[in-house]
């Protein structure tokens, strides 16, 4: 299950030296001292247990406390990895994480606290951020054990540009169309999580707001036995998944193309945004990004048009 073979010195480094450095780094700030604990955000497999790192196993073998999104899932993971250690399991999920954060920060002043979610990296569309926020404010050391990520895995296999991207989390259940309309001109590749039961409706709304020809990859059951990546246009995939799908879903959506426009049209667009409440400088920057018109030239032209009372 775990990788074997020769490993370099960095790969086989035990937990203790790494932990000591994390605590020492925190001690240079405020709060934790040399005997303090560490909050450890630990990534777990998103579907294939073979993706567990040796460092995660070593950390769990010595953990004092494990804060888990689901303590039953955490217990099954410990058993599957043959971890003999039995740390204290503390439930920390979306309904109690803000209340639990203070307690866990206090525990971490003297003991290591490992944070596990059901899959992937804690704090990324999963419990964890309020705890990190509280720990930083209290001067308690926070570190992470990197590992599987549905976001990065989906992006990497999508076939869409990876140089600039934005993760938008779960598509909103309410106001989905309006939320997508606000993202329609985003130039970066977008990554979403979505329910298998709503994926068809979301793809239909994507086709309506982003354009039916916008390229999309539906990434399903990543790293699992039935992994599937379906690539096509928003319109094609909306039809294909009209009845929904099964399993965990990531949507990767191509960014908007650059729109080359004339200065007059770009100025009209800026003034329309300003009329809707956007600041002139921000509207000019956004439209310059959309159209390719120079930002300074556009700002000065819009300022002049506004001064002269020109309406869009």
Description:
- With 312 residues, the chain is an alpha/beta fold.
- It folds into 3 domains: 15-148, Tetrapyrrole methylase, N-terminal domain (Cobalt-precorrin-4 Transmethylase, domain 1, 3-Layer(aba) Sandwich), CATH 3.40.1010.10; 151-253, Tetrapyrrole methylase, C-terminal domain (Methyltransferase, Cobalt-precorrin-4 Transmethylase, Domain 2, 2-Layer Sandwich), CATH 3.30.950; 263-307.
- Helices cover 40% and strands 16% of the residues.
- It is built from 12 helices and 10 strands.
- A 5-stranded parallel β-sheet has the order 3-2-4-1-5, sandwiched between helices. A 5-stranded mixed β-sheet has the order 6-7-10-8-9, sandwiched between helices.
- The longest helix has 13 residues, at 15-27.
Which parts are unreliable, with pLDDT below 50 for 5 consecutive residues or more?
1-15, 25-33
Global Rg: 24 Å
CATH architecture of the largest domain: 3-Layer(aba) Sandwich
Q: Structural class of the secondary elements?
A: alpha/beta
Largest sheet, strands/sense/barrel? 5 strands, parallel
Topology order in helix (H) and strand (E) letters: HEHEHEHEHEHEHEHEEHEHHH
The CATH homology group name of the largest domain: Tetrapyrrole methylase, N-terminal domain
Number of helices: 12
Provide the β-strand percentage band.
Answer: 15-25%
Kindly report the spatial arrangement of strands forming the biggest sheet: 3-2-4-1-5
Number of domains: 3
Helix content: 40-55%
CATH topology of the largest domain: Cobalt-precorrin-4 Transmethylase, domain 1
Give the arrangement of secondary structure elements.
Elements: H1 15-27, E1 38-42, H2 54-62, E2 65-68, H3 71-80, E3 88-91, H4 97-107, E4 113-116, H5 129-138, E5 141-145, H6 150-157, E6 165-170, H7 176-183, E7 189-194, H8 199-210, E8 215-220, E9 228-233, H9 234-240, E10 249-253, H10 263-275, H11 280-291, H12 295-307
Parallel strand pairs: 1-4, 1-5, 2-3, 2-4, 6-7
Antiparallel strand pairs: 7-10, 8-9, 8-10
Helix pairs in contact: 4-5, 7-8, 8-9, 10-11, 10-12, 11-12
């Amino acid at each position: 299950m775990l990788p074997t073979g020769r490993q370099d010195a960095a790969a086989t480094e035990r937990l203790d030296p790494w932990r000591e450095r994390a605590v020492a780094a925190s001690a240079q700030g405020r709060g934790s001292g040399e005997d303090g604990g560490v909050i450890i955000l630990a990534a777990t497999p998103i579907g294939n247990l073979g993706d567990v790192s040796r460092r995660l196993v070593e950390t769990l073998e010595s953990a004092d406390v494990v804060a888990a999104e689901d303590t039953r899932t955490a217990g099954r993971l410990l058993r599957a990895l043959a971890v003999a250690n039995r740390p204290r399991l503390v439930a920390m999920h979306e309904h109690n994480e803000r209340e639990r954060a203070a307690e866990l920060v206090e525990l971490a002043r003297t003991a290591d606290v490992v944070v596990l979610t059901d899959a992937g990296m804690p704090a990324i569309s999963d419990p964890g951020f309020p705890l990190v926020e509280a720990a930083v404010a209290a001067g308690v050391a926070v570190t992470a054990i990197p590992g599987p990520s549905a976001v990065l895995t989906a992006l990497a296999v999508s076939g869409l540009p990876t140089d600039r991207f934005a993760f938008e989390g779960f598509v909103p259940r309410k106001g989905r169309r309006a939320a997508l309309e606000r993202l329609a001109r985003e130039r970066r590749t977008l990554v979403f999580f979505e329910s298998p039961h709503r994926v068809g409706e979301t793809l239909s709304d994507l086709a309506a707001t982003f354009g039916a020809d916008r390229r999309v990859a539906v990434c399903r059951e990543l790293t699992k036995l039935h992994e599937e990546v379906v690539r096509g246009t928003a319109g094609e995939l909306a039809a294909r998944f009209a009845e929904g799908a099964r399993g965990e879903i990531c949507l990767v959506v191509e960014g908007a193309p650059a729109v080359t426009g004339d200065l007059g049209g770009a100025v009209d667009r800026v003034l329309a945004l300003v009329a809707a409440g956007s600041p002139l400088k921000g509207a000019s920057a956004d439209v310059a990004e959309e159209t390719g018109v120079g930002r300074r030239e556009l700002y000065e032209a819009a300022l002049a048009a506004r001064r002269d009372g020109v309406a869009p």
